[in-house]
Design goal:
Layout: E1 3-7, H1 18-25, E2 29-32, H2 38-42, E3 49-52, H3 64-76, E4 81-85, H4 95-104, E5 109-112, H5 117-124, E6 138-142, H6 155-161, E7 164-168, H7 174-183, E8 191-196, E9 204-209, H8 213-219, E10 226-230, H9 237-240
Parallel strand pairs: 1-4, 1-5, 2-3, 2-4, 6-7
Antiparallel strand pairs: 7-10, 8-9, 8-10
Helix pairs in contact: 3-4, 6-7
The chain binds S-adenosyl-L-homocysteine (SAH).
S-adenosyl-L-homocysteine (SAH) binds at residues 10-11, 35, 85-88, 91-93, 116-118, 121, 168-169, 195, 197-200, 224-227.
Amino acid sequence: MNVTLIGAGPGDAELMTIKGMNRLKEADVVLYDRLVGEDIIAMIPDTVEKICVGKHTGKHPVPQEEIGSLMASKAKQGLHVVRLKGGDPFVFGRGGEELEILCENNIPFEVIPGISSSIAAGICAGIPLTHRDYSSSLHIITGHVKRNGQLDIDFKSLSGLKGTLVILMGIAALEHICTGFLEAGMNPQTPAAIVENATLKSQRKFIGTLETLFELSQRNQVVSPSVVIIGNVCTLSDKLGI
Ligand code: SAH
């Protein structure tokens, strides 16, 4: 394969797959994101070209089309390109878009799944995402605000499902997200949680309710990357969490 798209998992290097690790060792050039664990980056030999295409303090990320064409041009030079992404490449990872560019350029590729933070965060906080007594469905939602300033969340429908809601990229707009669910009629006492830096040594978790979650995040100065979990399963955190 000329290009291997690899999910690096949620941060802890031991949570990356063996297959992903093996392919990483075969790379000539690695393009990686900000969310890829530092320990994983440190494992890449010095002889391999490493290109960070993620956002860094005060700087903008490399635009998506540029990442695609960079991958395509390196692959056309006969290099084995590894594209390393945090979590799973197809869960809000824009992996599909990058593969479309490779398709247009007739470049063969392989995709290796990773453990998504949307799954790992609950586990780290002692929150089973489904449980026969509490929740029979799981919904992974983006809390990213669109260019027009709007959230793309169907609050009404999601509130009615009574499943576990897992929100990625939700910290910046947390107040609007919580208000959206409250206005849609969700019980203010619905248990809710935030897991910051899941699987890393710096991990923190906060358990509250839909009504208190935003204030809790402000008081504790919660930062990205964090996963927000809303649903009755969050009550199990004290019992099952560490
Ligand atoms: N493809 C990734 C998600 C990319 S979107 C995946 O499957 O995990 C980026 C969002 O993922 C962040 O804003 C945050 O909500 C979440 N995230 C990624 N890594 C995280 C981590 N270690 N702890 C908490 N949230 C994380």
